[in-house]
């Protein structure tokens, strides 16, 4: 069995806009707030603070967007990845549930505002998101989802078989949930654009500077790297799934789940007229997901979770992804070549929403985005910056909680849940007489 390519050979690394010039942290720097981690969460936090005149230093172990923010599939859909809105209300209680629901469902507004304000070139397309129904019985789920999100202010609706085929080009779906506000990006270009915006607003961005520890010093906090330190009143950890050291136990507050992404060759213009002609983001509706869309070059960029050989054996994985794509779009006649493969890592929480940890007076951390990175990371900057600006804990959109270890079962529960979803979907599909996807 072969192994997939590292980050340096991903599609986004090959096609993203150049990163802004940055340097390693050297010597002593003083700031009001030190943000650790230059993914979307850290970048938007630093940006929100810098544009309000706060002296902020952003410290990153690698480069801006190196982790999940530069490795994801580029989908930007302002929804929650697993729990229904009603389930979140029961789980979180009020006012927390309504606050985070509002932040998440309006997250793409923040994405668009930042892109527009700072002229971020990141292949942004906002032509909607479609979750398809591959069997008739799935339509009731689509209707319930649409009703819930529409009541929360989302521009969405259920569409029938003819309309979903007209929008996507696929004859396989019995209908779908259409979310008009969904979009997609080159995620690494977006991260680099945010880093440039932080610098433009007067923030300092230090890369290649892993944080070794954080210690109290003169009533403040000293954030130390091998080459220097930041002395700050407040510290925010926003390192997500790529947390390595920095604060004891933070890397055990979540469990890693891998996802893989692949990109085809640029498809023929005639094929692109028939396959996703509106350039929407497409989710095939199965619990064992297959999500895909185009990049600027006309490549299909698709993502799935590893399972068995899939995601481990490159040849088998290419076969699975090709056969799924051609099942959904039988009009594709050209050979499909998956020219890029790469992995990302998700910081999974059982609740699949971010957790806000009170590490010490003046020090917090946020982890557990659980795979809904682009819109979620973009809206979290608003919450974390509000904390840094002194908004009372009771008025934040996430409840502060003590740091704790993720339960051991989270190491295997997501994979088991994925297999359960697949088994359940296959059973229902056979019972309803619908066509079963290849390699189901």
Automatic annotation (TrEMBL):
Domain named FAD dependent oxidoreductase: residues: 32-387
UniProt source species: Neorhizobium alkalisoli
Keywords recorded for this protein, A-Z: Oxidoreductase
InterPro entries named in the record: FAD-dep_OxRdtase (IPR006076), FAD/NAD-bd_sf (IPR036188)
Protein name: Glycine/D-amino acid oxidase-like deaminating enzyme
GO cellular component: cytoplasm
GO MF: oxidoreductase activity
Domain of life: Bacteria
């Amino acid at each position: 069995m072969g192994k997939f390519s590292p980050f340096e050979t991903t599609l986004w690394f090959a096609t993203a806009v150049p990163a802004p010039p940055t340097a390693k942290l050297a010597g002593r720097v003083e700031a009001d707030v030190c943000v650790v981690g230059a993914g979307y969460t850290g970048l938007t936090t630093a940006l929100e603070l810098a544009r309000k005149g706060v002296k902020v230093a952003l410290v990153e172990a690698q480069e801006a967007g190196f982790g999940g923010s530069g490795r994801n599939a580029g989908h930007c859909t302002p929804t929650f990845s697993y729990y229904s809105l009603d389930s979140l209300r029961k789980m979180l209680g009020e006012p927390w549930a309504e606050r985070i629901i509002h932040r998440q469902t309006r997250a793409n507004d923040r994405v668009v505002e930042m892109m527009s304000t700072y002229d971020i070139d990141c292949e942004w397309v906002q032509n909607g998101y479609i979750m398809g129904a591959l069997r008739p019985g799935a339509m009731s789920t689509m209707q319930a989802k649409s009703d819930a999100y529409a009541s929360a202010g989302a521009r969405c609706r259920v569409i029938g078989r003819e309309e979903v085929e007209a929008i996507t080009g696929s004859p396989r779906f019995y209908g779908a949930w259409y979310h008009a506000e969904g979009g997609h990006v080159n995620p690494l270009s977006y991260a680099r654009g945010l880093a440039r915006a932080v610098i433009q607003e007067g923030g300092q961005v230090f890369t290649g500077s892993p944080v070794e520890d954080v210690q109290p010093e003169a009533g403040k906090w000293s954030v130390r790297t091998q080459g220097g330190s930041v002395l700050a009143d407040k510290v925010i950890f926003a390192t997500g799934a790529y947390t390595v050291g920095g604060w004891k136990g933070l890397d055990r507050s979540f469990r890693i789940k891998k996802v893989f992404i692949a990109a085809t060759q640029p498809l023929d213009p005639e094929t692109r007229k028939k396959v996703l002609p509106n350039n929407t983001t497409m989710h095939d509706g199965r619990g064992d997901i297959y999500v895909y869309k185009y990049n600027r070059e006309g490549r299909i960029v698709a993502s799935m979770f590893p399972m068995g050989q899939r995601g481990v054996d490159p040849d088998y994985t290419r076969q699975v992804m090709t056969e799924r794509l051609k099942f959904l779009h039988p009009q594709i006649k050209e050979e499909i070549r998956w020219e890029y493969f790469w992995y990302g890592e998700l910081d999974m929480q059982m609740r699949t929403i971010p957790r806000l940890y009170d590490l010490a007076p003046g020090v917090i951390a946020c982890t557990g985005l659980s795979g809904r990175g682009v819109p979620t990371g973009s809206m979290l900057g608003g919450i974390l910056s509000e904390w840094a600006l002194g908004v009372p804990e009771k008025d934040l959109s996430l409840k502060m909680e003590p740091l704790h270890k993720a339960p051991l079962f989270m190491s295997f529960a997501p994979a088991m849940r994925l297999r359960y979803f697949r088994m359940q979907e296959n059973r229902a599909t056979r019972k309803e007489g619908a066509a079963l996807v290849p390699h189901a």
